Amino acid sequence: MYSSIFRPDLFQGKTMIVTGGGSGIGRCTAHELAGLGATVLIIGRTQAKLDAVSEEITALRGKVFSYVCNIRDEDSVKNLIATIVRQHGHIDGLVNNAGGQFPSPLKNISLKGWEAVLQTNLTGGFLMARECLNQAMEKTGGTIVNIVADMWGGMPGMGHSGAARAGMINFTETAAFEWAQYGVRVNAVAPGYVASSGMDAYPPEMASTIREFPRTVPLQRFATEAEISAAIVFLLSEAASFITGTCLRVDGGRPNVRGGYPMAEVKNKVAAYDGFHLASTPKVLQKQETK
Ligand code: ADE
Asked: What separation in Å is there between the alpha carbon of 166 and the centre of ligand 1?
């Protein structure tokens, strides 16, 4: 079972939504939340992926429900949240994790491609958060964690995603201010390079670049999914009850690298924390050192 650093009953009686719960960071977070007593509602576009994660969680006596929804579609999101409120009564947490992009230099991104990435990574998160607020959290309070990315200073090769994620940070800041009156905290988590299934979604010609990522990170390794989930769980928890409007970077210090200043070889490697019992190394990193 999941080996969380948090108290086993932390989220007993709480209902937590995780979008993109069918794989990667979302799947890991759904497992950790279920392991801490939450009723976890996983959202995604593919029923089969959601079913697989639901079975994994149920096998450990976790409480999980899955819902297929395209978060880009306003009516679908409104109906989804109405259904959830009807079935579960309250929504205590939202992890806005669903996302996706394709690598391309800016000059080759079509309007359709740009808008698709903006809709998935910015508009969809806004719609989910707005509906959770209007249909549930306005009355009860709650916590929202928006998952963004290490896009600080630009995101070469994925400029559409960088623009969307930077927009999500600013949305987080505005929502933190406007929704504090309802007892709703809104924060973000910005993962760096994570050894997760998402790494296998890139074209094969990117494999050698991906394998070299740790060289650009002061802590000189990939993050585990569990290291990202731990940050999300912290921000959802009462331990973060005075934290709103912030972004917690989980990136091994990557944005602190300065061009021209040499990076020292790591002498004492900070060991990875991997509490996720079902974690697996993405194919592109297999036979590679990831920890
Ligand atoms: N995961 C990635 N894109 C998504 C979308 N549009 N809706 C729901 N989950 C997603």
From this structure: 18
Give the rounded percent of residues in the chain with a pLDDT score beyond 70: 98
| Closest CA to ligand 1's atom 7 | 70
- Measured between alpha carbons, how far is residue 100 from residues 35, 152, 211, 291 in Å? 26, 18, 20, 24
The residue type found at 166 is A
What's the pTM value of the predicted model, to 2 decimals?
Answer: 0.97
Among 15, 54, 48, 50, residue whose Cα is nearest residue 33: 15
Structure tokens at 260: 């021209």
To test the pocket of ligand 1, the residue of 27, 72, 74, 122 to mutate (highest count of ligand atoms within 8 Å of its CB) is 72
Q: What spacing in Å lies between the alpha carbon of 38 and ligand 1's midpoint?
A: 22
User: Does residue 100 line the site of ligand 1, with CB under 6 A?
Assistant: yes
What is the CATH number assigned to the segment(s) 15-251+276-289? 3.40.50.720
Strands 184-191 and 247-250: parallel
Q: What are the extents of the domains in the chain?
A: 15-251+276-289
Q: Output the CA 97–ligand 1 centroid distance in Å.
A: 9
| Contact by Cβ (8 Å): 50, 250 | no
72 lines ligand 1 (CB under 6 A): yes
* Ligand 1 atom closest to Cα of residue 100: 2
Write the pLDDT tens digit of every residue in 194-230: 999 889 988 898 899 999 999 999 999 999 999 999 9
d(CA 146, ligand 1 centre) in Å: 14
- The Cβ-side half-sphere exposure at 129, using a 13 Å CA radius, reads 29
Residue 94, beta-bridge partner list? 17, 144
The H or E element that residue 87 is part of is: helix 74-88
In this structure, the number of other CB atoms found within 10 A of the CB of residue 234 comes to: 17
